[in-house]
User: Which sequence fits this backbone?
C-alpha cells in the first residue's frame, strides 16, 4: 500500500514537471526565452503546484484526518529540501559561468570585430529591404537665386536661408545697408561660414548695386576735388573796409562781416559778448568759438577795450 501511494505521488510530481517543461518549450518557440532569474521563479511556481496536488492526494488518502493546508505546507517544505536548494545552486553556478564566458569572449578583439561586422551587415540588409519595399521619390528643385538688395522674405526662405537670417537681411537693408558684394551677407547676424558657402552660388548682385571699382575711383577723385574747392572757400575773406580802432563792446553785425567774419560767425561773436557781459581783454575775445587764429591776428592791433569795468556785468559771476 505504501509503495502504491508513493508511486501515485511520484506520478503526480512527474506529470506536473512534464506539463511545466512543455509550456517552457512553447514559450521558447515563440522567442519568449527566460533568463536565469525568471527561471528560478518558474521553478518555485512549479514546486508550489506540485505541493498542492501532492497535498490533495494525501488528504484523500488519510480521509481528512489532517487539514489540507497543513499537508500543503509540509509537502512544500519537503519538496524545497529535496529539489529547490540543489537546483537553485546549480542554476546560479551555470549563470555565473555563462557570464564569465561572455565577458571573456568580449575581451577578444576578433570576436568584437566579427560581432560588429555581423551587426553592420544585418543593419545594411534591413535598410536595403526597407528601401526596396518603400522607395523614396526624389524631386529635383531648381536652384533659387536671389538679390539681397531686392529679394523679399519668401524668396530668401525659398533659397534655403533660415527665417531669422532672412529677417535680419531685410532689416539691415531697411536700415540703409546696400549689399555691394556677396561677402556682405557673411556679416549678417547668425550667418555661419558653412551656410554662406552653401548659398554663395545663389547670390546675384544686381548691376544697380554691384561694386564697380572704376566708378568708385572716379567718385573718389571727384570727392578730392570737392574737398579742395571747399578748402578754397574756407579761406578767410579779405576785409572790405579799412580796419581802424575796433571797440568790441559797441561793434555791430555789419562791421564784423565787413572785417572778414561770416554772418554766422559775427552772430556768435555778438552772442558771446552778451553772455559774458562784454570783452575786457584779447584773451576773452579769443575764447569765442567763431574767432580763429587768422581773425585774431588780423584784428589784434585794432582792438580797443573800455576802461570803465564797473559798467559791465558778467553773467558768469552772477551764476
Assistant:
Amino acid at each position: 500500500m505504501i509503495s502504491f501511494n508513493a508511486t501515485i505521488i511520484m506520478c503526480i510530481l512527474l506529470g506536473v514537471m512534464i506539463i511545466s517543461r512543455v509550456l517552457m518549450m512553447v514559450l521558447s518557440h515563440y522567442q519568449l526565452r527566460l533568463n536565469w532569474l525568471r527561471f528560478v521563479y518558474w521553478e518555485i511556481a512549479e514546486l508550489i503546484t506540485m505541493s498542492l496536488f501532492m497535498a490533495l492526494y494525501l488528504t484523500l488518502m488519510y480521509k481528512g484526518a489532517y487539514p489540507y493546508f497543513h499537508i500543503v505546507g509540509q509537502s512544500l517544505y519537503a519538496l524545497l529540501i529535496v529539489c529547490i536548494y540543489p537546483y537553485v545552486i546549480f542554476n546560479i553556478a551555470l549563470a555565473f559561468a555563462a557570464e564569465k564566458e561572455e565577458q571573456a569572449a568580449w575581451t577578444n578583439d576578433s570576436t568584437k570585430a566579427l560581432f560588429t561586422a555581423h551587426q553592420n551587415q544585418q543593419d545594411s540588409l534591413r535598410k536595403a529591404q526597407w528601401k526596396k519595399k518603400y522607395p523614396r521619390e526624389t524631386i529635383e528643385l531648381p536652384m533659387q537665386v536671389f538679390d539681397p538688395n531686392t529679394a523679399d522674405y519668401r524668396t530668401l526662405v525659398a533659397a534655403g536661408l533660415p527665417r531669422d537670417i532672412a529677417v535680419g537681411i531685410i532689416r539691415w537693408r531697411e536700415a540703409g545697408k546696400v549689399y555691394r558684394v556677396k561677402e556682405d551677407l557673411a556679416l549678417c547676424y547668425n550667418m555661419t561660414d558653412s551656410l554662406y558657402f552653401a548659398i554663395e552660388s545663389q547670390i546675384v548682385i544686381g548691376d544697380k548695386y554691384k561694386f564697380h571699382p572704376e566708378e568708385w575711383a572716379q567718385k573718389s577723385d571727384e570727392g578730392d576735388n570737392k574737398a579742395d574747392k571747399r578748402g578754397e572757400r574756407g579761406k578767410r575773406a579779405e576785409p572790405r573796409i579799412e580796419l581802424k580802432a575796433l571797440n568790441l563792446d559797441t561793434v555791430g553785425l555789419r562791421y564784423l562781416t565787413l572785417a572778414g567774419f561770416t554772418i554766422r560767425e559775427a552772430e556768435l561773436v555778438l552772442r558771446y559778448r552778451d553772455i559774458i557781459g562784454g570783452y575786457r581783454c584779447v584773451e576773452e575775445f579769443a575764447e569765442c568759438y567763431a574767432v580763429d587764429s587768422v581773425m585774431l591776428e588780423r584784428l589784434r592791433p585794432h582792438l580797443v577795450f573800455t576802461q570803465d569795468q564797473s559798467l559791465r556785468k558778467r553773467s558768469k559771476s552772477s551764476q
